[in-house]
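ARCHIVE CARD
Drawer: 12
Card no.: 0347
Subject: one protein chain, sequence and derived structure
Cross-reference: see card 0346
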Amino acid sequence: MSLSGALSNAVSGLNANARGTAVISANVANALNADYGKRTLNLSTDPNQSSGGVRVVSVTRFSDPILAHQKHAATSESASARVRADAAKSIEQLWGSVDTIDSVATKLTKFETSLSSAAADPSSETRLKIVAQSAEDLARSIRDAAKGIQTLRTQADASIATSVAEMNTSLQRLEELNKKVVLAKHLGQDTLSLLDQRNVELERLSNQVPIHVVDRDNGAIAVFTGRGSTLLDVNAVELSFQPQSPVLSHMTEANGLLSSLRVNGDVVDGSSSGLLSGGKLSAQFDLRNRTAPEAQQKLDAIARDLIERFGPGGPDTSLSATDAGAFTDDGTTFDPVNQIGIAERLQVNSALQSSSVDLWKWRDGIMSTTPGEAGDSSLLLALKSQLNVDIVPTTSSLGTAARSLTYHVQNLTTTIAAERVRSDDQLTFAIQQLATVQENVASNGVNTDQEMQQLIELEKSYAANARVIRVVDEMLSELLGI
């Protein structure tokens, strides 16, 4: 080999060493960056040099489509499970568990106990006032739970709007990044940073909806939902949604008072049965349109049962068919056709409230005009018994079997607690699945030990190439000195 050939080989080796060092430095610097794809330097012999030498063919970015798809799916499921678990936890907190002092079940027990206490001494103004206060507490606890559910729906509606905005932003960025990747690839420029940026947007998008990514020959990608709906293929779709605040109990998507999700102007089903199901977005639609309204229906049914048990035809024989009973629809007689939202309007009859000067009406009847026998406890005992009388519900939300009010409250408490436990289990499983996939992805990421070993090899190679150049320089000096 000639001296010029040896010099050329050494210089090409130094160039490769420098490029390799830069690649390793970038890998080590991004070792903890989950969105970074590990770089690998690809070398080959230089066919343009008769003496050989090395040339940098390319720097490739590691990617595993199967692992990426698994991670996107696990991310979507985890986000969806978190929305469901948070909703179940919030509903349980609103209604209360059996062991909390502010639960509806506890308030009902205190109301029953106060009636027993008043029946033991019906002449006691203090005990009658405690009955009134416990009745107000019971009504307030049901009312607050119902209002809290509407707050959950309002929050879900606002979250949908936020998710739609984030999806539009990510899709627009992906469209722009696609164009940049195609252009850079056409010009022979580095696309690795662009691919990292594109991966970031795909991760954000998969949080909202499960995605399936398809690589195109020109370097661009197409993005579809898990059920095959197109999100991006050359051009990104545009999602639209109009939030409503506040969301009230009578508002639904079906009656047009709540916004539907639109894709390129067309209405689509945003729930878990639609083409965008599986992620945070569909879970929020389910909360707004199904989970919270179903809980509201049960609360309304219990409020109606409470009103009807203590209304006309109940223990208080002083009431006529058109009179309001002990519990009212915002102070007036309850109209069965206006059941939606009754739990939010539940109030104790003004004649029986703790601020009333006629608390004796708990003992003698709401429509009584004068106090009766101070020792008569028959009505108070009848009111207490009415809580545990089995009555066929007038609404299907409580089933069709004759049950007591106590049973309905305890059964709903148990059902809500069971749903919270179930959703917590699903969230735990989803988090574990995501962690497993993330570990698999990380195992194919940057290994700093391996990178350091490669750096040592590059250092040795650099020293060898530098030695060749020094020897060639010394030989040339000797030749020129002859």
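Annotation on reverse: The longest strand covers residues 54-61. The mean pLDDT is 91.
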